[in-house]
Amino acid sequence: MVDLKVQQRLIKPKIDKRIANVLHEGQYVWGREIGELEQKLASYTGCEHVITCSSGTDALLLALLAIGLLPGDAVLIPAFTFVATAEPIVLLGATPIFVDIDPVSLCIDPALIEKGVEAAKKAGCRPVGMITVDLFGRPADYSRLHSIGLDLGLWLIADGAQSFGASVAGKRVGSLACMTTTSFFPAKPLGGYGDGGAVFTSDAELAAKLRSIHEHGKGDSRYHFVRLGVNSRLDTLQAAILLEKLEIFPKELENRQVVAARYESFLKGIVRTPHPPAPETNVCHAWATYTIRLKNRAALQEHLKSFGIDSIVHYPDPVHKVAPYQKYPTVEGGCPVAEEATSEVLSIPFDPYLDENTQWLISNAVRQFVASQTY
Ligand SMILES: *Cc1c(COP(=O)(O)O)cnc(C)c1O
């Protein structure tokens, strides 16, 4: 789905050198590459503090611990996301409230936030905040969400696991919310060779808390603990690898735009292609995946498979239909837009090095399938 080999060929000697250096220095935990990576991530995203951690899921847990989420609190999240957005809320004893998505962006629908607050109150919870998800790499509608959140007294955390590199009006993901989380899972836009994640913030107080929490609630000295925390650190080896990947990331982000535009030109009118953000919105999409929509996707998957083409459903169910989350409330009226979308989406192979010929072959297989369905 995401061919990481071309990228690896480009940077293999540099990565080998970085890894050899980590082995030579022997600082497998808290090595100097951690600080170097955090600094470079901060300057790339334009936020002041970056705290690296074990995964994108942990990044969300750290953010929720830092903001002080308590049992009885409710957090609004989009119904269409990976389960990891809901998981830490439930683990902390709070309640996720599922909000339907905007049919164009597939991100949380700002017009439904007020309904989400009502659903939380009806369930006997305190609505305290919302977690937005930049699904497939497209930033949510931050300006509207901020002003609605301000009116309703909700904090906003951005789950940017799929949108590292994306931006709105020149401001990058990482600097669009009071805290932003991301994932370095290999298939994400900035992926390592294993698990990893980070939290971004420009709030010094939150940054200090996050640092402490991801080291068991550490205080000023080694065995001095001041709060409840967890162990969630990025390995030095992953930081070393990510440093080399970050070097080529800006160019890759450009390539992603080109690859996405080519799919659009090959597939438009054949299946529902993703809506790229309108130019006047000044939104840069990170294109974590290229996700098309059609009614009979299972049959298309079979057809593609017969040509040796992989495809994957991100995600087959909205989170409120996934077993451990079914007992939590949705906004009144449920989440029909998310339900329809999850029944139709199919991600096709996508990476910044996908060549035109391969894209044409994949698109042609899709076209052939759609033609066979209509006759
Ligand atoms: C991948 C992902 C996560 C979790 O990241 P991990 O690093 O795999 O823990 C969280 N939220 C969303 C939206 C994701 O896509």
Task: Characterise the protein shown here.
With 375 residues, the chain is an alpha/beta fold. It folds into two domains: 4-246, 3-Layer(aba) Sandwich (Aspartate Aminotransferase, domain 2), CATH 3.40.640; 249-373, Aspartate Aminotransferase, domain 1, CATH 3.90.1150.10. 41% of the residues lie in helices and 14% in strands. It has helices at 5-25, 32-45, 56-67, 87-91, 113-122, 142-152, 204-213, 236-267, 297-306, 336-344, 356-374, and strands at residues 49-53, 73-78, 95-99, 126-133, 155-159, 167-168, 171-172, 179-183, 197-201, 283-284, 290-293, 345-348. The strands form three sheets. A seven-stranded mixed sheet has the order 1-9-8-5-4-2-3, sandwiched between helices. Helix 6 links the parallel strand 4 and strand 5 (155-159). Helix 2 runs parallel beside helix 8. The chain starts with a helix and ends with a helix. The mean pLDDT is 97. The structure holds pyridoxal-5'-phosphate. Pyridoxal-5'-phosphate binds at residues 55-57, 81-82, 84-85, 133, 159, 161-162, 183, 185, 195, 197. This is DegT/DnrJ/EryC1/StrS aminotransferase family protein.
Brief rundown of the structure:
The protein has 375 residues and is of the alpha/beta class. It has two domains: 4-246, 3-Layer(aba) Sandwich (Aspartate Aminotransferase, domain 2); 249-373, Aspartate Aminotransferase, domain 1, CATH 3.90.1150.
